[in-house]
Specification:
By secondary structure, the protein is mainly alpha-helical. The chain is built from 4 helices and 2 strands; from the N terminus they run αβααβα. The model has no long low-confidence stretch (mean pLDDT about 90). This is Calcyphosin isoform X1.
């Protein structure tokens, strides 16, 4: 779980404890995950459970943990 939290913190480039779309896209790209913009939009909507247009650490962990 600590590793997942660490990945979130690295992706959170402005340090506000939320990921916006650009941070998520850049984070995936920097991790070697290749997705076009539309696929990233789909993933972002899945991660953003509350529809706030940001992903908090809880949403991130739930979305990632389901696929481990």
């Amino acid at each position: 779980m600590e590793d997942l939290s660490g990945v979130f913190r690295m992706m959170d480039s402005n340090g506000n404890c939320f990921l916006d779309f650009d941070e998520l896209w850049k984070g995936f790209s920097n991790s070697g995950v290749s997705m076009d913009q539309q696929d990233t939009v789909t993933v972002f909507k899945y991660f953003d459970r509350d529809g706030s247009r940001t992903v908090d650490i809880g949403e991130y962990l739930v979305a990632v943990w389901v696929h481990i």
